[in-house]
TrEMBL record:
<dbReference type="InterPro" id="IPR053139">
    <property type="entry name" value="Surface_bspA-like"/>
</dbReference>
<dbReference type="InterPro" id="IPR026906">
    <property type="entry name" value="LRR_5"/>
</dbReference>
<dbReference type="InterPro" id="IPR032675">
    <property type="entry name" value="LRR_dom_sf"/>
</dbReference>
<dbReference type="Pfam" id="PF13306">
    <property type="entry name" value="LRR_5"/>
</dbReference>
<protein>
    <submittedName>
        <fullName>Leucine-rich repeat domain-containing protein</fullName>
    </submittedName>
</protein>
Length: 281
């Protein structure tokens, strides 16, 4: 297959942004961008149904919003270590994409980056990456995602970050994690989850309908468990909450789940109020 190469410079040898108009000139299945672009602009390659593989230059710093959105034939994307920012929706609905390796210098995975990439199986990120936030909907509806290793620096997992990741059986949550957002792992396939000690809040429906989880222990730094946080977890036999919580939402578990708690704690009182079985620790 032929490769497309385009060189665009100004008279002072300053490197241009690769914008939507210039991107239209890439018409081959394999796009090798060896020119020294720093930015790929918003929507640059959006809905390009021809490209199957893209090699980005090692001078690139930013991939713009929706830059490759709905490139439905795109199977491979080579992202250099120079990239610091991938903006919202950059690879959204790239339904042929299967494997991605992300650079270490990013500090955040922005909204919707891989949302709807329903054939994405593996995401490689160094544990030493600077990424500290997995923003909303990053892997929403990535139904075949089966492997991802989160960086140590991650402190927040936001709304629907891993929503409906049905093939994701295992995920190690980093020890510095502080917040697990609303519906973050809703209908995920995870079988075993360890909540790190530094987590302070598990928001509404965070693990709702994770039907393979069997047991959970809530660390003592957790101050709030939101509504429906573990409801619909059909195999969840026990959840251990060894301390008083500042806020407990409605229906955090199904009635078949036993809550292990201290006698007389506010968790014990909560369970009595809602008819949830308890076992004292």
């Amino acid at each position: 297959m032929a490769k497309s190469r385009i060189r665009v410079w100004n008279s002072e040898n300053i490197i241009f942004t690769l914008d939507k108009n210039r991107a239209k000139q890439y018409k081959e299945e394999i796009v090798d961008i060896n020119e020294k672009y720093v930015r790929i602009s918003n929507n640059a390659f959006e809905r390009n149904l021809k490209i199957k593989e893209v090699v980005l230059p090692d001078t690139l710093v930013l991939i713009g919003k929706n830059a490759f959105k709905e490139c439905k034939s795109l199977k491979k994307i080579h992202i250099p270590e120079s990239v610091k920012t991938i903006e919202e929706g950059a690879f959204r609905d790239c339904v042929s994409l299967k494997i991605v390796k992300l650079p270490d210098g990013m500090d955040k995975l922005n909204k919707n980056i891989f949302k709807g990439c329903n054939n994405l199986k593996k995401v490689f990120i160094s544990t030493e990456s600077e990424i500290n936030t997995i923003d909303s909907d990053v892997f929403n509806n990535c139904e075949k995602l089966e492997y991802i290793q989160l960086p140590k620096a991650v402190k927040r997992i936001e709304f629907r970050s891993f929503y409906r990741t049905k093939s994701l059986k295992k995920i190690a949550l980093p020890e510095d994690l502080e917040y697990i957002g609303k519906e973050a792992f809703y209908l995920s396939g995870i079988e075993n989850i360890e909540i790190p000690d530094k987590v302070k809040e598990i928001d509404d429906s965070a693990f709702k309908n994770c039907k393979y989880i069997v047991g959970v222990r809530i660390p003592e730094n957790v101050k709030r468990i939101g509504k429906d946080a573990f409801s619909g977890c059909r195999r969840l036999k026990t959840i251990e909450i060894p301390h008083d919580l500042e806020d407990i939402g409605d229906k955090i578990v199904n009635l078949h789940t036993t809550v292990r708690c201290r006698e007389g704690s506010n968790v014990d009182n909560y369970c009595e109020k809602f008819g949830i079985k308890t076992e004292y620790i």
